[in-house]
Design a protein that fits this description.
heterodimer, A: 261 residues, mainly alpha, 2 domains, elongated, B: 262 residues, MetI-like fold, 11 helices, globular
């Protein structure tokens, strides 16, 4: 079903036509009812978007946002996977850490923006931190369950065959936990992007988030909408890239999983 | 079950709690030794929380946040369930709507905030709109998946008995999707809470998010932590409350599935 749906997603002509149709209707409605004070016309938005992209005004902001995203996300992946493997493979560590994890995990990363501001000040470190914090929990939890759910039988066979601890981890535990880790990474990406852009938006520290905020304050609607569209495309692109990467790398687990959850 | 797992069952919560308390004690000692205003001792935070939480001012902020959350959840869930049912029930509407939904779903709700501010202003309408926007997609996707999971046998039987249109949606698809919708709503609650806070970072009308950011701006660090702590408690309470209601409302489902505790 997943393959079918992805094929549909790639060549779903009626669906994309519907998107275009909506844009055309919006264009006409805005023009007819004279709504340009509150909404930018789609054609204007697209024109501004290409202008801003080619002039470099917007592309440098995307660069800043993506760089922070990549850094924070990388930290989250490393921490999440390492901690998840440790906690997942040791009963004692699991017992010891679960109250702390259950206490920290529900705290929305957005609320930590003010806290991070106090400690790290305005700028990239704050944004990197909140991205990493937001992304680390789904990765950690999924890794944890993946490691715990690893095939006991394989594990026992490896042990009785004299395979050492490290090798068991690398050859048995990690491969069977990998699909679950991939899910965690994919699930946390949109959260991390949301939190990163929000932090930029709140703190005015560059990136597409503060670009959006500045244009909104200056009431430059086409530029603002261009940034909105770009953020949407960015989210869509990251989503698509991770899904494709997941299908390529952990292809053996893809069958029963839905592409939508 | 062997002995070690039995011991583990009993020891497990204790060890976890011990580590948690240990971490708090270390924080307390370190904060007292360091005397940095960034890291107030835990006792000071709790002290302040105890003073601040019962005040009318604070509770008004909380009430404002909860009202926005409730309104956004109801609107978002209604939209999500409706479109989810539509996409699940009809193949052509699924094909027609999928790219649009995928595109909107990938849009971080923060990107919608500026547009909503320009159109709806800085007040509650904007906030409720943002919450509804962010919340509707998990509900939509879960509803859709729930309807898709209806077995071909059931679909065929319905076709054979000429159960069509609205009746099929409301008598078969909706009940079948309810457990999945409930899971979506649970996700929606935690996303909604995030979006309440986010939307309260701007504009007037207060709220818990505004309170936290405001206290940080005035360097009232213990108050800031007290606000965050309260938010965590609200999130926890909403989640637990939802699970309780879900168990009750969907008791028939868990009874049929033979797994009441999940």
């Amino acid at each position: 079903m997943e393959r079918a749906r992805n094929a549909v997603g790639r060549a779903n002509l009626p669906g994309w036509l519907f998107v275009v149709l909506l844009a055309v209707v919006a264009e006409l409605v805005i023009r007819q009812l004279d709504l340009e004070d509150s909404v930018a016309r789609p054609s204007e938005t697209v024109r501004t978007l290409t202008n801003e992209l080619s002039s470099g005004a917007l592309s440098s902001e995307i660069g800043a946002t993506l760089e922070r995203f990549a850094q924070g996300f990388a930290v989250a992946i490393v921490c999440g996977v390492v901690l998840g493997v440790l906690i997942g493979s040791s009963r004692t560590l699991g017992d010891a850490s679960f109250v702390v994890i259950e206490f920290l995990r529900p705290i929305p990363a957005i609320v930590l923006i003010p806290v991070a501001l106090l400690f790290l000040g305005l700028g990239t470190p704050t944004i990197r931190f909140v991205i990493a914090y937001a992304a680390v929990w789904p990765i950690l939890i999924n890794t944890l369950y993946g490691v715990r759910g690893a095939d006991r039988m394989l594990h026992d066979v490896a042990r009785t065959s004299g395979v050492g601890r490290t090798e068991r981890l690398v050859r048995v535990t990690l491969p069977s936990a990998l699909p679950s880790i991939a899910t965690g990474i994919r699930v946390s990406a949109p959260i991390a992007l949301l939190v990163g852009v929000t932090a930029e938006w709140v703190t005015f520290s560059g990136g597409i988030g503060s670009y959006m905020r500045q244009r909104q304050d200056a009431f430059e609607l086409p530029e603002m909408y261009a940034a909105i569209v770009l953020t949407a495309v960015l989210g869509y692109g990251i989503n698509l890239a991770l899904r494709t990467a997941e299908r390529r790398t952990v292809f053996w687990a893809g069958e029963e999983r839905s592409s939508w959850t | 079950m062997d002995v070690s797992t039995t011991v583990g069952r009993v020891g497990r919560p204790l060890l976890g709690v011990a580590v948690f308390v240990g971490a708090l004690v270390i924080w307390e000692l370190w904060a007292r030794a360091e005397d940095s205003f960034l890291v107030p001792p835990m006792t000071e935070v709790l002290d302040r929380a105890w003073e601040v939480w019962p005040t009318a001012d604070f509770l008004t902020e909380v009430a404002a946040s909860l009202r926005r959350l409730a309104a956004g959840l109801v609107i978002g869930a209604a939209i999500g369930i409706t479109i989810g049912l539509l996409m699940g029930a009809s193949r052509s509407s699924r094909r027609g709507l999928e790219p649009l939904v995928e595109l909107l779903r990938a849009t971080p709700p923060i990107a919608i905030v500026p547009a909503f501010i320009v159109v709806l202003g800085f007040g509650d309408t904007m906030r409720i709109g943002v919450i509804a926007f962010g919340v509707c997609f998990p509900v939509l996707v879960h509803t859709f998946e729930g309807v898709r999971a209806v077995s071909p046998e059931v679909r065929d039987t319905a076709s054979m008995l000429h159960v069509g249109g609205a009746e099929r949606v409301f008598r078969i698809y909706l009940p079948a999707a309810l457990p999945s919708i409930a899971a979506g709503l649970r996700v929606a609650i935690s996303i909604g809470l995030v979006l309440v806070v986010l939307s309260e970072f701007v504009g007037e009308g207060g709220g818990l998010g505004h309170y936290i950011l405001d206290q940080q701006g005035q360097f009232n660090v213990p108050e800031m932590y007290a606000g965050i702590l309260f938010l965590g408690l609200v999130g926890y309470a909403l989640n637990r409350g939802f699970v309780l209601v879900e168990r009750r409302v969907l008791a028939w489902h868990y009874a049929a599935a033979g797994d009441p505790a999940r």
